[in-house]
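lol ok so funny story. i was supposed to be doing the assay writeup but got distracted and ended up predicting the structure for this chain instead. priorities right. anyway since i did it might as well share w the group, maybe its usefull for someone
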Amino acid sequence: MTPAIIRPLPGERRVSYSAAWLVPVDAVTGSAPGLPLQVLLDIQEGQGWLPTGIAPIITLSGAVGYPDLGRRADAATAAPTRYRARFESEVYLALSRAYRDGEEFLAYPFDDTVPPAAAASRVMVSLVPAAGYPFPGDLPVLYGQVSTAAGEPVPDVLLGVAMGPPALRTPQTVQALTGPGGTFALPLRWAPAGQAITVTATDYRHTPTRTGQLSVRLPDALGHNQKIVIGLRQGASKWPSTSAPASTSRNSTSARIPSRA
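and the output, tada:
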């Protein structure tokens, strides 16, 4: 059940604190997302999650906040509540989905005289491009799909490319994520032509961890749908996390971040 939010009476002084400050960043541009994005908020109930229907505030800088989640009538004795914010879009994928369904945080109780026990820190949410992202025409992009040996598409798989000397003077890395259908779009802005590039796919959401690799050369690999097959890597474990169990449920309760011209 969503905790009740206390409303002020006329003439009362009201103090507010955000339970979280989440800063989404477009991994391609390095700036605030300029394309449609939704933020969905869930509350933890036992070992599961329920949608709250609570919309965040969006600051002028693009940060996502929840100012009244922790407001309680019994702020001095109430326990904190765990929430989860999920970022959903047709063109973005939250990179953190490689490990969990959303950004979890605690809303500490407060009122107009009792501050929260801990202040919210700013958390950057990296939004990598989905297959439908409108890339610039001059940016090399590797498109493909990750699946199991049986041909089952695998979502939320982390893809990475790292390259350094002698191919590149300055080491470079890039990451991407598979979408619901296992598809991915991996921008390779710095990849040299004719040089072998190894794409590593890792499924941290599976126990044990599953991995796969693909070796390609640009520009030959562009314009073709690349396939990566992942399999089990014995003895591996999931990415360590102190957060609550993840849920794969989705719902339509959302707050839309308007696109920027």
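Confidence is low (pLDDT under 50) at residues 1-6, 235-254. The chain is about 0% helix and 40% strand.
back to the writeup now i swear
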